[in-house]
Write a structure and sequence with these properties.
Elements (H helix, E strand, L loop, with lengths): L1 E5 L5 E8 L4 E3 L5 H4 L16 H4 L10 H10 L5 H16 L3 H17 L3 H28 L1 H8 L5
Antiparallel strand pairs: 1-2, 2-3
Length: 161
């Protein structure tokens, strides 16, 4: 599929973008100015002058995953950073390999079945699962893929050409 776009000067731009079954291929060429259109860098010259008031205090984690607590109670020590990252990456990867349409159908059936039985707790759990999967699909598979072509080029620059 070839899409015709116009530039800021209303000149017709013939560049190739097309849709694959699970992603969009975008081979448009940008000038450096267009490429960095939404990037505004204000670099720090002297880090010693910065304070938390200037940059904002980072988010402090006060609750921890059940798996982290279980690992620490089983091993009797603090979860090492490397092991923590392995656990996170394994968990995160599971979301990417999910069969989303099948998962949505299954959670929808579970929701309807429990709603018909008036099982409030299971109905709420099934609805939560359905909404999490639906949101994951929207944010990470739809929005993330089209949000910023610079990220795609940075990751897959050699394979896009």
């Amino acid at each position: 599929m070839i899409e015709i776009e116009t530039s800021a000067n209303n000149e017709v731009i013939h560049e190739e973008t097309y849709l694959q079954p699970s992603y969009r291929v975008d081979k448009r060429q940008f000038t450096e100015r267009e490429y960095n259109k939404f990037v505004k860098l204000r670099g720090v010259r002297d880090w010693s002058t910065l304070s938390w008031k200037d940059v904002g205090k980072p988010y402090e984690v006060t609750t921890f995953a059940k798996e982290k607590k279980e690992w620490e109670s089983e091993n009797g020590k603090v979860l090492p950073v490397h092991t923590s990252w392995e656990m996170f990456n394994r968990s995160f990867h599971e979301w990417f390999v999910k069969d989303v349409p099948a998962g949505l159908n299954q959670s929808r059936k579970r929701f309807i079945s429990n709603a018909l039985k008036l099982n409030v707790k299971e109905t709420a759990a099934a609805l939560g699962e359905h909404l999490r999967l639906h949101l994951w699909n929207y944010v990470h598979r739809i929005q993330d893929g089209v949000w910023d072509p610079r990220g795609k080029r940075a990751l897959f620059g050699d394979t896009l050409t």
